[in-house]
């Protein structure tokens, strides 16, 4: 169940910061927040979303799915707080401090942009366990800090191969939310996979919706819509997006044009927001953020927490590609062969374009 929650924080400078659009979810045992019927303390998990929050039908929703599974399977209680577009890093820090100071342990930050703030707050709360999804540089520090990172380039390699094999015009496109190294990894893998599958394919120059510090490229569907139109006009008949919530605009525009769209993070074929064009979703590069969130919460619940980062890749099925809709059934054997070659070390996927 979700219910509206408006939280006002006070920053270290004394300025008031209002975080709208936050939500809280209860997954309580019979004994409430403090314990269950056997006197065992119930875990209280705090999660701070990236821009777009729950409902982006992509990256954040994947994290939310992991938290929901933890509520169901581990009987934890949770609180969620959403980020705001173009917010300063101090907002992220205040959000994490709020969760930790009100008894939430562990605390999760969703997205690489939380890394610096989370590491800072973790030092102030040494008895609280912290976790960052997409740890910047795949590095964290501190005895109470864990993180996950993903080989996005490997999953993107496979959907790039799919794009090339399915293209009829010989031109494919890529739209990234924000021009940062993480999103460049998606393009690097996509381009390499396309060239491996069909050396003569034309991969259009990538289009990034915004530049840092503007991260609205992960949320504004209108930006995704316009970028998709631009690449369609250049002849692309398959377009892959790595743009979070803004990617919904990409998928809807590409689908309306009768061309192939490739989703990201979640299996977007099954997302309600694109139900009217889902038959034009070729596949999605699936990034199991949900698995990383659940695994972390489970480790804390079972007193098996380990500091440091965990890498999710093709070998441990942390990334992959979706088959919903059956649109890649005819090339699945080729994609799985490429996957096997990557896992075996016969193909090294680049992380930079």
From TrEMBL:
It comes from the Bacteria. Residues 1-24 form the signal peptide. Coiled coil: none annotated. GO terms for cellular component: plasma membrane. It is a lipid-anchor. It is found in: Cell membrane. The keyword Signal applies. It holds the Pfam family Bmp. InterPro entries: BMP_lipoprotein (IPR050957), Peripla_BP_I (IPR028082), PnrA-like (IPR003760). Keywords: Cell membrane, Lipoprotein, Membrane, Signal. PROSITE patterns: PROKAR_LIPOPROTEIN. Residues 48-351 form the ABC transporter substrate-binding protein PnrA-like domain. Its main location: membrane. Belongs to the BMP lipoprotein family. This is BMP family ABC transporter substrate-binding protein.
């Amino acid at each position: 169940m979700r219910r509206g929650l408006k939280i006002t924080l006070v920053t270290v400078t004394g300025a008031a910061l209002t975080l709208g659009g936050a939500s809280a979810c209860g997954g309580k045992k019979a004994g409430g927040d403090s314990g269950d019927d056997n006197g065992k303390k119930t875990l209280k998990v705090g999660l701070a979303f990236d821009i777009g929050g729950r409902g982006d039908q992509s990256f954040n929703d994947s994290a939310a799915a992991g938290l929901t599974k933890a509520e169901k399977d581990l009987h934890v209680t949770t609180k969620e707080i959403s980020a705001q577009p173009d917010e300063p890093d101090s907002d992220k820090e205040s959000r994490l401090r709020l969760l930790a100071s009100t008894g939430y342990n562990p605390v999760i930050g969703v997205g690489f942009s939380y890394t610096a703030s989370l590491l800072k707050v973790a030092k102030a709360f040494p008895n609280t366990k912290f976790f960052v999804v997409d740890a910047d540089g795949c590095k964290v520090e501190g005895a109470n800090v864990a993180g996950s990172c993903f080989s996005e380039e490997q999953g993107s390699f496979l959907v790039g191969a799919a794009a090339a094999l399915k293209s009829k015009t010989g031109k494919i496109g890529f739209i990234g939310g924000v021009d940062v190294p993480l999103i460049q990894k998606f393009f690097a893998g996509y381009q390499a996979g396309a060239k491996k599958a069909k050396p003569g394919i034309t991969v259009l120059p990538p289009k990034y919706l915004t530049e840092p510090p503007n991260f609205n490229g992960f949320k504004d569907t209108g930006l995704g819509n316009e970028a998709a139109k631009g690449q369609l006009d250049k002849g692309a008949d398959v377009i892959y997006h790595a743009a979070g919530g803004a990617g919904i605009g990409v998928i809807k525009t590409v689908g309306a044009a009768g061309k192939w769209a490739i989703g990201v993070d979640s299996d977007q074929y099954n997302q309600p927001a694109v139900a009217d064009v889902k038959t034009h979703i070729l596949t999605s590069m699936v990034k199991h953020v949900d698995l990383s969130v659940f695994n972390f919460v489970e480790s804390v619940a079972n007193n098996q927490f380990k500091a440091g980062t965990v890498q999710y890749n093709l070998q441990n099925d942390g990334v992959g590609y979706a088959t919903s809709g059956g649109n890649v059934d005819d090339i699945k054997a080729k994609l799985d062969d490429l996957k096997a070659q990557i896992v075996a070390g016969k193909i090294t996927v680049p992380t930079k374009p």
